[in-house]
Protein backbone atom coordinates (compact mmCIF):
# COMPACT_ATOMS: atom_id res chain seq x y z
CA UNK A 1 0.00 0.00 0.00
CA UNK A 2 0.97 3.61 -0.53
CA UNK A 3 -0.05 5.51 2.61
CA UNK A 4 -0.27 9.28 3.00
CA UNK A 5 -0.32 11.09 6.35
CA UNK A 6 -1.74 14.57 7.03
CA UNK A 7 -0.88 16.51 10.20
CA UNK A 8 -3.82 18.91 10.14
CA UNK A 9 -2.53 20.98 13.07
CA UNK A 10 0.82 21.60 11.38
CA UNK A 11 4.29 20.41 12.26
CA UNK A 12 5.08 22.58 15.29
CA UNK A 13 4.59 19.56 17.57
CA UNK A 14 4.85 15.97 16.33
CA UNK A 15 1.60 14.03 16.09
CA UNK A 16 2.06 10.83 18.08
CA UNK A 17 -0.79 8.99 16.33
CA UNK A 18 0.75 9.60 12.92
CA UNK A 19 4.13 8.35 14.12
CA UNK A 20 2.51 5.14 15.39
CA UNK A 21 0.50 4.67 12.19
CA UNK A 22 3.67 5.18 10.18
CA UNK A 23 5.51 2.56 12.25
CA UNK A 24 2.67 0.04 11.92
CA UNK A 25 2.30 0.42 8.15
CA UNK A 26 6.05 0.27 7.58
CA UNK A 27 6.10 -2.97 9.59
CA UNK A 28 3.55 -4.34 7.09
CA UNK A 29 5.85 -3.39 4.22
CA UNK A 30 3.82 -0.35 3.15
CA UNK A 31 5.24 2.88 1.74
CA UNK A 32 4.50 5.83 4.03
CA UNK A 33 4.98 9.59 3.63
CA UNK A 34 3.31 12.89 4.40
CA UNK A 35 0.57 13.19 1.79
CA UNK A 36 1.34 15.27 -1.28
CA UNK A 37 -1.58 16.83 -3.19
CA UNK A 38 -2.18 15.27 -6.64
CA UNK A 39 -0.20 12.14 -5.68
CA UNK A 40 -2.30 8.93 -5.64
CA UNK A 41 -2.60 6.97 -2.37
CA UNK A 42 -4.30 3.76 -1.34
CA UNK A 43 -5.12 5.24 2.05
CA UNK A 44 -4.74 8.60 3.79
CA UNK A 45 -4.87 9.31 7.51
CA UNK A 46 -5.70 12.83 8.66
CA UNK A 47 -4.91 13.52 12.33
CA UNK A 48 -6.15 16.56 14.19
CA UNK A 49 -5.78 17.43 17.88
CA UNK A 50 -7.53 20.82 18.01
CA UNK A 51 -11.01 21.85 16.91
CA UNK A 52 -12.03 24.76 14.67
CA UNK A 53 -11.33 27.26 17.44
CA UNK A 54 -7.60 26.72 16.92
CA UNK A 55 -7.12 24.68 13.74
CA UNK A 56 -8.98 24.82 10.44
CA UNK A 57 -9.63 21.48 8.78
CA UNK A 58 -7.51 20.49 5.80
CA UNK A 59 -9.77 20.76 2.76
CA UNK A 60 -7.19 19.59 0.23
CA UNK A 61 -8.63 17.25 -2.41
CA UNK A 62 -6.22 14.36 -2.00
CA UNK A 63 -6.10 11.65 -4.68
CA UNK A 64 -7.48 8.87 -2.50
CA UNK A 65 -10.87 7.22 -1.93
CA UNK A 66 -9.96 5.82 1.52
CA UNK A 67 -9.47 8.86 3.75
CA UNK A 68 -9.61 8.23 7.51
CA UNK A 69 -9.84 11.08 10.01
CA UNK A 70 -9.01 10.82 13.70
CA UNK A 71 -7.98 12.72 16.80
CA UNK A 72 -9.83 14.91 19.29
CA UNK A 73 -10.21 17.63 16.68
CA UNK A 74 -12.63 15.30 14.89
CA UNK A 75 -14.39 13.94 17.99
CA UNK A 76 -13.86 11.94 21.17
CA UNK A 77 -15.01 8.51 20.00
CA UNK A 78 -12.15 7.61 17.64
CA UNK A 79 -9.17 5.60 18.85
CA UNK A 80 -6.25 3.77 17.34
CA UNK A 81 -6.50 -0.03 17.21
CA UNK A 82 -4.69 -1.68 20.14
CA UNK A 83 -1.87 -3.02 17.99
CA UNK A 84 -1.21 0.44 16.53
CA UNK A 85 -1.54 2.26 19.86
CA UNK A 86 1.27 0.17 21.28
CA UNK A 87 3.69 0.53 18.36
CA UNK A 88 7.05 2.17 18.98
CA UNK A 89 6.67 5.57 17.24
CA UNK A 90 8.37 6.23 13.91
CA UNK A 91 10.33 9.31 14.97
CA UNK A 92 11.97 9.51 11.54
CA UNK A 93 8.66 10.81 10.19
CA UNK A 94 9.46 14.19 11.76
CA UNK A 95 13.23 13.79 11.70
CA UNK A 96 13.33 13.47 15.51
CA UNK A 97 16.51 11.95 16.91
CA UNK A 98 16.97 13.06 20.53
CA UNK A 99 13.46 13.19 22.08
CA UNK A 100 10.90 10.50 22.90
CA UNK A 101 7.18 11.32 23.05
CA UNK A 102 4.43 9.31 24.66
CA UNK A 103 1.91 8.55 27.38
CA UNK A 104 2.59 6.48 30.47
CA UNK A 105 -0.93 7.12 31.80
CA UNK A 106 -4.32 8.16 30.51
CA UNK A 107 -7.29 9.69 32.28
CA UNK A 108 -7.71 12.27 35.04
CA UNK A 109 -10.03 12.40 38.10
CA UNK A 110 -10.47 16.19 38.03
CA UNK A 111 -13.01 16.45 35.16
CA UNK A 112 -12.46 20.20 34.70
CA UNK A 113 -15.24 21.74 32.60
CA UNK A 114 -12.83 23.21 30.06
CA UNK A 115 -10.94 19.93 29.54
CA UNK A 116 -11.90 16.97 27.32
CA UNK A 117 -9.67 14.39 29.03
CA UNK A 118 -12.30 13.12 31.45
CA UNK A 119 -14.85 12.54 28.71
CA UNK A 120 -12.34 10.99 26.34
CA UNK A 121 -10.09 8.94 28.63
CA UNK A 122 -12.07 8.48 31.84
CA UNK A 123 -12.01 9.87 35.37
CA UNK A 124 -9.30 7.54 36.67
CA UNK A 125 -5.63 8.04 35.92
CA UNK A 126 -4.34 4.62 34.86
CA UNK A 127 -1.09 3.20 33.58
CA UNK A 128 -1.16 2.42 29.84
CA UNK A 129 2.50 1.80 29.02
CA UNK A 130 6.00 1.36 30.33
CA UNK A 131 8.65 3.84 29.29
CA UNK A 132 10.36 1.46 26.87
CA UNK A 133 7.25 1.47 24.69
CA UNK A 134 8.32 4.83 23.26
CA UNK A 135 11.84 5.49 24.65
CA UNK A 136 15.04 3.68 23.70
CA UNK A 137 17.80 5.90 25.01
CA UNK A 138 16.96 9.39 23.72
CA UNK A 139 18.36 12.15 25.91
CA UNK A 140 14.96 13.85 26.27
CA UNK A 141 11.54 12.49 27.21
CA UNK A 142 8.38 14.52 26.59
CA UNK A 143 5.38 13.11 28.46
CA UNK A 144 1.86 14.01 27.34
CA UNK A 145 0.12 12.48 30.39
CA UNK A 146 -2.79 14.51 31.78
CA UNK A 147 -2.17 13.57 35.44
CA UNK A 148 0.51 10.93 36.03
CA UNK A 149 0.83 11.55 39.75
CA UNK A 150 -2.86 10.73 40.26
CA UNK A 151 -2.16 7.19 39.03
CA UNK A 152 -1.77 4.43 41.64
CA UNK A 153 1.32 3.24 39.76
CA UNK A 154 3.08 6.62 39.90
CA UNK A 155 6.00 5.26 41.99
CA UNK A 156 6.82 2.62 39.37
CA UNK A 157 6.53 5.12 36.52
CA UNK A 158 8.53 7.81 38.32
CA UNK A 159 11.21 5.20 39.01
CA UNK A 160 11.43 4.38 35.30
CA UNK A 161 11.88 8.07 34.50
CA UNK A 162 14.54 8.48 37.18
CA UNK A 163 16.43 5.39 35.98
CA UNK A 164 16.39 6.66 32.38
CA UNK A 165 18.64 9.58 33.36
CA UNK A 166 17.02 11.45 30.46
CA UNK A 167 15.75 15.02 30.78
CA UNK A 168 12.02 14.74 31.47
CA UNK A 169 9.30 17.21 30.54
CA UNK A 170 5.66 16.87 31.64
CA UNK A 171 4.19 19.02 28.90
CA UNK A 172 0.60 18.90 30.25
CA UNK A 173 1.71 19.92 33.72
CA UNK A 174 1.82 18.40 37.20
CA UNK A 175 -1.27 18.46 39.41
CA UNK A 176 -0.01 20.52 42.36
CA UNK A 177 -3.20 19.72 44.29
CA UNK A 178 -2.12 16.07 44.49
CA UNK A 179 1.46 16.88 45.48
CA UNK A 180 3.01 15.18 48.51
CA UNK A 181 6.50 15.25 49.98
CA UNK A 182 7.17 11.81 48.46
CA UNK A 183 6.07 12.91 44.99
CA UNK A 184 8.09 16.08 45.28
CA UNK A 185 11.19 14.06 46.15
CA UNK A 186 10.57 11.80 43.15
CA UNK A 187 10.46 14.86 40.89
CA UNK A 188 13.64 16.18 42.47
CA UNK A 189 15.36 12.88 41.67
CA UNK A 190 14.48 13.20 37.98
CA UNK A 191 16.56 15.16 35.54
CA UNK A 192 14.33 18.16 34.86
CA UNK A 193 14.87 21.40 33.00
CA UNK A 194 11.39 22.77 33.77
CA UNK A 195 8.18 21.95 35.61
CA UNK A 196 4.67 23.03 34.61
CA UNK A 197 1.75 23.43 36.99
CA UNK A 198 -1.65 25.10 36.63
CA UNK A 199 -3.88 27.43 38.64
CA UNK A 200 -6.98 27.37 36.46
CA UNK A 201 -9.74 27.87 39.03
CA UNK A 202 -9.41 31.27 40.68
CA UNK A 203 -11.23 30.45 43.98
CA UNK A 204 -9.09 27.32 44.48
CA UNK A 205 -7.00 28.45 47.45
CA UNK A 206 -5.90 24.84 48.00
CA UNK A 207 -4.07 25.06 44.68
CA UNK A 208 -2.44 28.33 45.70
CA UNK A 209 -1.49 26.99 49.13
CA UNK A 210 0.12 23.91 47.56
CA UNK A 211 2.10 26.06 45.17
CA UNK A 212 3.25 28.09 48.16
CA UNK A 213 4.06 25.07 50.33
CA UNK A 214 6.20 23.27 47.76
CA UNK A 215 7.89 26.25 46.12
CA UNK A 216 11.10 25.96 48.12
CA UNK A 217 11.13 22.17 47.89
CA UNK A 218 11.43 22.15 44.10
CA UNK A 219 15.09 22.35 43.14
CA UNK A 220 14.55 24.64 40.19
CA UNK A 221 14.85 28.36 39.64
CA UNK A 222 11.56 30.25 39.47
CA UNK A 223 12.17 30.90 35.77
CA UNK A 224 11.85 27.15 35.25
CA UNK A 225 8.70 26.70 37.34
CA UNK A 226 5.81 27.61 35.06
CA UNK A 227 2.17 27.89 36.15
CA UNK A 228 -0.53 27.89 33.48
CA UNK A 229 -3.20 30.53 34.16
CA UNK A 230 -6.49 29.86 32.37
CA UNK A 231 -8.32 33.04 31.39
CA UNK A 232 -11.49 34.01 29.48
CA UNK A 233 -13.35 31.02 30.91
CA UNK A 234 -14.95 31.86 34.26
CA UNK A 235 -12.83 34.70 35.67
CA UNK A 236 -12.65 38.47 35.44
CA UNK A 237 -9.56 40.30 34.28
CA UNK A 238 -9.08 41.50 37.87
CA UNK A 239 -9.02 37.88 39.06
CA UNK A 240 -6.60 36.98 36.29
CA UNK A 241 -4.22 39.74 37.33
CA UNK A 242 -4.54 38.73 40.99
CA UNK A 243 -3.34 35.21 40.18
CA UNK A 244 -0.52 36.56 38.04
CA UNK A 245 0.71 38.93 40.75
CA UNK A 246 0.49 36.28 43.48
CA UNK A 247 2.47 33.83 41.38
CA UNK A 248 5.18 36.43 40.87
CA UNK A 249 5.33 36.91 44.65
CA UNK A 250 5.87 33.15 45.09
CA UNK A 251 8.63 33.18 42.45
CA UNK A 252 6.79 31.14 39.83
CA UNK A 253 6.59 32.11 36.17
CA UNK A 254 2.94 32.38 35.03
CA UNK A 255 1.91 31.50 31.50
CA UNK A 256 -1.43 32.91 30.35
CA UNK A 257 -3.72 30.56 28.42
CA UNK A 258 -6.75 32.19 26.76
CA UNK A 259 -9.83 29.99 26.41
CA UNK A 260 -11.60 30.55 23.08
CA UNK A 261 -9.14 33.25 22.14
CA UNK A 262 -11.20 34.75 19.27
CA UNK A 263 -13.75 35.87 21.88
CA UNK A 264 -11.20 37.39 24.26
CA UNK A 265 -11.18 41.16 24.89
CA UNK A 266 -8.20 43.12 23.65
CA UNK A 267 -7.07 43.89 27.20
CA UNK A 268 -6.72 40.18 27.94
CA UNK A 269 -4.68 39.71 24.79
CA UNK A 270 -2.38 42.48 26.01
CA UNK A 271 -2.07 40.73 29.38
CA UNK A 272 -1.10 37.52 27.62
CA UNK A 273 1.53 39.33 25.58
CA UNK A 274 2.92 41.05 28.69
CA UNK A 275 3.17 37.82 30.72
CA UNK A 276 4.27 35.35 28.04
CA UNK A 277 7.03 37.56 26.61
CA UNK A 278 9.53 36.79 29.35
CA UNK A 279 11.82 39.71 28.53
CA UNK A 280 8.89 42.09 29.00
CA UNK A 281 7.58 40.16 32.03
CA UNK A 282 10.89 40.48 33.87
CA UNK A 283 11.40 44.13 33.00
CA UNK A 284 7.85 45.33 33.78
CA UNK A 285 6.41 44.11 37.09
CA UNK A 286 2.89 45.56 36.81
CA UNK A 287 0.50 45.37 33.91
CA UNK A 288 -0.56 48.94 34.72
CA UNK A 289 2.93 50.03 33.63
CA UNK A 290 2.92 47.97 30.44
CA UNK A 291 2.68 49.74 27.08
CA UNK A 292 1.40 47.27 24.43
CA UNK A 293 2.66 49.48 21.61
CA UNK A 294 6.27 48.91 22.69
CA UNK A 295 6.16 45.09 22.74
List its traits.
295 residues; alpha/beta; four-stranded parallel β-sheet; globular
Helix-strand blueprint:
Elements: E1 2-7, H1 16-27, E2 31-34, E3 43-47, E4 67-70, H2 82-85, E5 99-102, E6 105-106, H3 117-121, E7 126-127, E8 140-143, H4 154-164, E9 167-170, H5 181-189, E10 191-192, E11 195-198, H6 205-214, E12 225-231, H7 237-249, E13 253-258, H8 266-276, H9 278-283
Parallel strand pairs: 1-2, 1-3, 3-4, 5-8, 8-9, 9-10, 11-12, 12-13
Antiparallel strand pairs: 6-7
Helix pairs in contact: 4-5
The major beta sheet can be summarized as: 4 strands, parallel
Strand order of the largest sheet: 2-1-3-4
Quick one: how many beta strands?
13
Q: What is the overall silhouette? A: globular
Residue stretches low in confidence (pLDDT < 50, at least 5 long) are none
- Average pLDDT, rounded to a whole number, is 95
Strand content of the residues, in percent? 15-25%
Total DSSP helices? 9
Secondary-structure-derived class: alpha/beta
Distance from first to last alpha carbon:
51 Å
Helix content: 25-40%
Rg for CA atoms: 21 Å
> Helix and strand string, N-terminal first?
EHEEEHEEHEEHEHEEHEHEHH
Amino acid sequence: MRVGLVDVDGHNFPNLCLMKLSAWHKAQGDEVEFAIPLMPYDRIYMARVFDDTYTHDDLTAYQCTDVRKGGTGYGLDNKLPYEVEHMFPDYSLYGITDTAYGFLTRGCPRHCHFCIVGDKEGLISRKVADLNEFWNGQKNICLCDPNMFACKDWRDLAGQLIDSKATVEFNQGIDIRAMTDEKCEALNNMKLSMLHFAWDNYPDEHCYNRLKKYRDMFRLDGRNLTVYVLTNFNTTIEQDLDRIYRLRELDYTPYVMIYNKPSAPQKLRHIQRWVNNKFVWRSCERFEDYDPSLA
